[in-house]
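Help needed: design a sequence for this.
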């Protein structure tokens, strides 16, 4: 069983790869790279003990949920993590319905049948995913879990060393930054970035719905009130992600979950009936921004997940981009020439090139949609509603779009 290692006791931990981060992307990368035959040190806090499925069922629903596509599902399945999830708390999405705004609102609908798939995506909670990953890490070969705070990164032609605040260090051929939007690793590499706030906050909470959702995710582009998404949870329950302008977000932050449910009635009542808060006290919010680092790699360093890119959540693919990074990094390192080290500059450049198109497409798409739907100018509103209706009548293009979003 893998137990957290004290860097201070060993002074220096050596491995092929050091991953800095403690989220789902970091843990998945550790499992995947270890499965590929590389020794990995995961620098993060000690994993919490496993929670039995019966105990997990007693928990309320996480405010933070993810919509995972087929790329994520295949990756987690290959690591024996998908089957370890509590599937009673996973909701398959069979349809996605996008609603325009205004008196002549357009609309766009995707469904699994039209995409020639059993399901479009899966909604699951942060806790469910991380519990399954933590359980896999405890028994993973070639993975050490280290606790400590990184304070320095030294790199030379042959290796990189992460210095820790207790005097210990981790030496590796490659350091992977999976430490989020405010990445410490990225900062140590002096990688510049483009940053823009959307002047919005994502307000999240969970509700029971009066009518069955039939596995459909709904999204309303409202213009002045932002973007409202209601994602299916198991049973007659939904998870809210409301990308609200900051002034409205301040108001929502001060309101109860029931008051928010009352506000949602104008959008949801026809499709889902009345909404009732599952956990009245559980309303969370986080700022929305676009972060585009100028590079995904540096000497002896590769970035993945939010450390490499942060996009608007309107498409629900921020986490999926991170899983795509993991898949590509494993593939690139596994297919390198025998004479090339895993931290070789040319190897890392291949990883960056392979991810460039997918990341750029998602950045441009989500940023463009966020800009397009944030204005209430009537001519523009008419154009975007017309565009939604037109796209809905073009099945070939719809299938291409949904196939890309599904990661197939």
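Sure. Designed sequence:
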């Amino acid at each position: 069983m893998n137990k957290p290692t004290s860097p201070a006791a060993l002074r220096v931990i050596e491995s092929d790869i050091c991953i800095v981060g403690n989220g789902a992307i970091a843990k998945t990368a550790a499992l995947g790279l270890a499965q590929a035959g590389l020794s990995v040190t995961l620098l993060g806090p000690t994993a919490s003990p496993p929670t039995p499925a019966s105990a997990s069922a007693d928990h309320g629903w996480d405010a933070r949920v993810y919509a995972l596509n087929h790329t994520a599902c295949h990756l987690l399945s290959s690591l024996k993590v998908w089957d370890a999830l509590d599937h009673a708390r996973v909701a398959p999405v069979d349809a996605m319905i996008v609603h325009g705004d205004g008196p002549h609102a357009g609309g766009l609908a995707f469904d699994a049948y039209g995409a020639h798939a059993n399901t479009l995506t899966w909604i699951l909670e942060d806790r469910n995913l991380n519990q399954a990953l933590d359980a896999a890490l405890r028994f993973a070969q070639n993975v050490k879990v280290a606790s400590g705070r990184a304070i320095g990164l030294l790199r030379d032609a042959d290796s990189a060393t992460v210095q820790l605040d207790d005097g210990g260090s981790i030496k590796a051929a490659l350091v992977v930054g999976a430490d989020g939007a405010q990445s410490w690793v990225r900062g140590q590499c002096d990688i510049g970035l483009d940053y823009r706030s959307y002047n919005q906050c994502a307000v999240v909470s969970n509700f029971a719905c009066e009518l069955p959702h039939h596995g459909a995710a709904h999204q309303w582009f409202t213009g002045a009130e932002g973007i409202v998404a209601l994602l299916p949870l198991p049973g007659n329950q939904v998870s809210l992600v409301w990308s609200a302008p900051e002034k409205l977000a301040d108001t929502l932050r001060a309101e109860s979950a029931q008051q928010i449910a009352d506000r949602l009635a104008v959008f949801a009542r026809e499709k889902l009936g009345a909404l009732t808060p599952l956990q009245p006290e559980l309303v969370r919010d986080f700022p929305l921004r676009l972060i585009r680092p100028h590079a995904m790699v540096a000497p002896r360093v590769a970035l993945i997940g939010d450390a490499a890119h942060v996009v608007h959540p309107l498409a629900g693919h921020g986490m999926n981009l991170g899983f795509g990074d993991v898949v590509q990094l494993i593939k690139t390192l596994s297919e390198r020439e025998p004479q090339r080290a895993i931290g070789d500059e040319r190897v890392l450049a291949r990883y960056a090139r392979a991810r460039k198109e997918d990341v750029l497409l998602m950045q441009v798409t989500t940023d463009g949609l966020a800009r397009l739907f944030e204005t209430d100018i009537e001519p523009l509103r008419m154009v975007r509603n017309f565009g939604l209706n037109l796209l809905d009548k073009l099945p070939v293009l719809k299938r291409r779009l949904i196939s890309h979003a599904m990661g197939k």
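Residues 50-57 have pLDDT under 50 and may be disordered.
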